[in-house]
Amino acid sequence: MFINRRDVQIQWGDCDPANIVYYPRYFAMFDDSTSIMFEAAGFSKQDIIHKYGLVGIPMVDTRAKFHIPSTHGDWITIESRIDSIKRSSFEVVHRVFKGEALAIEAFETRVLVGRHPDDPGKLKSAPFPQEIIDRFMKG
């Protein structure tokens, strides 16, 4: 299974007045991490959208478990992987480490979306390309 890791330093603007990361900032980091994971696997988001005629890859569900807070200046490691792939949706798991300790477990569901063939003004889910499935599931 393909796993991507990246190190992120917590910036002043990520924190609330208590100097801990304001939780929506983590979700922006997770969104970036998913895009970076695709690029690391050899599939830039822009290339996928053009090659397969997609409009985007929106997040349709997300949640997180916060175990350890982070503050300005801390370094964290975000480990991202695709946990499962269905016809047009996929599940991403992000694990955030602060040193060796698990700080956050986050989960997102995304869907490949293209234009509806009968009505270009509407959107429709699109099938997940086999070459991308193979890359993520075989590592």
TrEMBL record:
It comes from Bradyrhizobium jicamae. The keyword Hydrolase applies. This is Acyl-CoA thioesterase. InterPro entries: 4-hydroxybenzoyl-CoA_TE, HotDog_dom_sf. Transmembrane segments: none annotated. It holds the Pfam family 4HBT_2. Keywords: Hydrolase.
